[in-house]
């Protein structure tokens, strides 16, 4: 018996009595070596094909029957017992030894009356029945009809299974799409909730200092206010203005860092000195007066951007104050550990739960907020810390023993070995006490308050509300310093600066950009336009005075 499928297919096509096949109809195979008997059985079955809805195959030997079985499934096989070379019993054994055809029903056809032993042998080979010639057509039709009906039901079940499988795959695909849409919707809803919570938090954080500023300003305008009250009101305005500035700066800086729009200006930095300076600023502001602060620092140097490191340290200290009740302890330690520098800020505050610890440096994540908590925040300070520390090649970590047991925040930075330089002696006076200052600013309130601030210090102040009138006044009044806003109507500050630098009468004047645009590209554009310095609003009093009174080179070092 050939094993090669291609040769079997060729042999299959070379024999007669083969009808056009339909895979959706049950098949009946007639096997008989006698041509007359084979033609008679096939012809008899052909009469019932349309009625019983099946198709007939024929074979003249056991070998040919096996080739058919390899290629098709059969509802029933009518198998002659007495065939040369390969008997019906041998053929039946071969058919049922194959897994795919092991359950195929076989009816033995014989002209001899089978004794009990032959019947038993046939049943052992898987026969389901015997037919004796001459065959009675009604009996043949009844027997074949039973197996054809069973095979048709089996085919229908297969077709239904295919349809169900196809529908299942389609439903699975639809379900997967729906799940994906649900996931997207949940993510979108979570983003919306986060945005709404953030906006609500932002509104709360902005209203608090604005309310304090408004109340203090109202107090100053009232009659009968004594000196102590007016001093307190001014302090409140300064303190709350600083809070507003920190909120805006944190928002802008986080956006710049996450979009890769910040360029670090690294230099060897005495980290211990910077930590002490940041703490002194908080002490001066009065924010630490209700806490027990301890600080221990090694003298260590890092390669870092001083401004960005100041943000990192201030945010760590601010976080400790924010989440520690009055009377609590805050311990600051700066240590040299092998090749690294480790800054830790430990507090005795509300602590953190185990599920919050891995997320504390994520954006907009905060500890539990209570209505009576005096300090607020947007949940971006620690995220900004992580981003900036990572940009410096460092790492961050948070630890806590649980709610109510305080927490510790760590930052680690690569240590460098640098010889501290002696501070350069500054001359006692390098500039006159007063200046002629031109302010070019379109915002009336901002222009007026800046004019009053500088006039109270003895400076001669001239103001202009737009670029063209500012250029005209600069040529006429010959100011020493020009404070120039960038966002001016009709003619922006860059164009005004270029025009002033192009005029021999005004090209020597000191130009200071005083603007709300604080991106790195804004600073670069200012320098390219001819500005000496770029200050971002609001500018605190000391920084403004340094910008005005020091030489451009010295002022750039201080700012």
Automatic annotation (TrEMBL):
It is a multi-pass membrane protein. Residues 201-417 form the Histidine kinase domain. SMART domains: HATPase_c, HisKA, REC. The keyword rRNA processing does not apply. It catalyses: ATP + protein L-histidine = ADP + protein N-phospho-L-histidine. It is found in: Cell inner membrane. PROSITE patterns: HIS_KIN, RESPONSE_REGULATORY. It comes from the Bacteria. The modification 4-aspartylphosphate is found at residues 80, 485. Its EC number is 2.7.13.3. GO terms for cellular component: plasma membrane. One of its GO terms (molecular function) is phosphorelay sensor kinase activity. Residues 27-148, 436-552 form the Response regulatory domain. Keywords: Kinase, Phosphoprotein, Transferase. Gene3D superfamilies: 1.10.287.130, 3.40.50.2300, Histidine kinase-like ATPase, C-terminal domain. This is histidine kinase. It comes from Noviherbaspirillum humi.
């Amino acid at each position: 018996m050939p094993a090669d499928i291609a040769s079997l297919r060729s042999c299959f096509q070379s024999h007669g009595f083969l009808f056009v096949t339909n895979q959706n109809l049950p098949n009946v195979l007639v096997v008989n070596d006698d041509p007359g008997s084979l033609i008679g059985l096939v012809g008899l079955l052909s009469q019932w094909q349309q009625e019983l809805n099946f198709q007939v195959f024929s074979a003249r030997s056991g070998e040919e029957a096996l080739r058919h079985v390899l290629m098709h499934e059969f509802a029933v096989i009518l198998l002659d017992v007495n065939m040369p070379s390969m008997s019906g019993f041998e053929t039946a054994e071969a058919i049922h030894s194959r897994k795919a055809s092991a359950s195929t029903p076989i009816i033995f056809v014989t002209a001899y009356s089978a004794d009990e032993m032959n019947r038993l042998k046939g049943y052992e080979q898987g026969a389901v029945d015997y037919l004796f010639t001459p065959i009675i057509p009604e009996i043949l039709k009844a027997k074949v009809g039973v197996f054809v009906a069973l095979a048709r039901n089996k085919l229908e079940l297969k077709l239904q299974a295919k349809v169900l499988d196809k529908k299942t795959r389609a439903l699975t695909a639809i379900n997967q799409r729906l799940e994906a849409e649900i996931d997207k919707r949940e993510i979108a809803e979570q983003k919306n909730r986060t945005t709404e919570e953030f906006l609500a938090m932002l509104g709360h954080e902005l209203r608090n200092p604005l309310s304090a500023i408004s109340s203090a300003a109202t107090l100053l305008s009232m009659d009968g206010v004594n000196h102590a009250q007016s001093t307190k009101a001014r302090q409140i305005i300064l303190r709350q203005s600083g809070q507003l500035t920190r909120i805006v700066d944190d928002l802008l800086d986080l956006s710049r860092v996450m979009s890769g729009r910040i360029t670090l200006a690294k230099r060897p930095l005495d980290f211990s000195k910077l930590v002490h300076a940041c703490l002194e600023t908080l002490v001066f502001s009065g924010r630490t007066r209700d806490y027990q602060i301890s600080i221990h620092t090694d003298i260590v140097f890092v390669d870092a951007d001083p401004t960005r490191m100041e943000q990192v340290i201030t945010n760590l200290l601010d976080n400790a104050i924010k989440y520690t009740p009055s009377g609590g302890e805050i311990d600051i330690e700066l240590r040299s550990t092998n090749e690294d520098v480790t800054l830790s800020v430990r507090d005795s505050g509300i602590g953190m739960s185990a599920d919050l610890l891995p997320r504390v440096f994520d954006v907009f994540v905060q500890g539990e907020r209570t209505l009576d908590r005096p300090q607020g925040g947007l949940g971006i300070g620690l995220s900004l810390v992580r981003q900036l520390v990572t940009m410096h090649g460092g790492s961050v970590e948070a630890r806590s023993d649980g709610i109510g047991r305080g927490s510790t925040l760590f930052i680690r930075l690569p240590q460098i070995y640098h010889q501290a330089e002696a501070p350069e002696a500054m001359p006692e006076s390098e500039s006159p006490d007063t200046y002629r200052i031109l302010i070019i600013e379109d915002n009336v309130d901002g222009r007026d308050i800046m004019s009053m601030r500088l006039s109270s210090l003895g400076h001669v102040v001239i103001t202009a509300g737009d670029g063209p009138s500012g250029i005209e006044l600069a040529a006429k009044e010959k100011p020493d310093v020009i404070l120039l806003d960038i966002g001016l109507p009709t003619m922006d500050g860059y164009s005004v600066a270029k025009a002033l630098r192009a005029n021999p009468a005004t090209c020597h004047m000191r130009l200071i950009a005083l603007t709300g645009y604080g991106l790195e590209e804004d600073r670069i554009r200012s320098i390219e336009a001819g500005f000496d310095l770029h200050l971002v609003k609001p500018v605190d009093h000391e920084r403004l005075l340094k910008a005005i009174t020091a030489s451009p080179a010295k002022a750039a070092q201080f700012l």
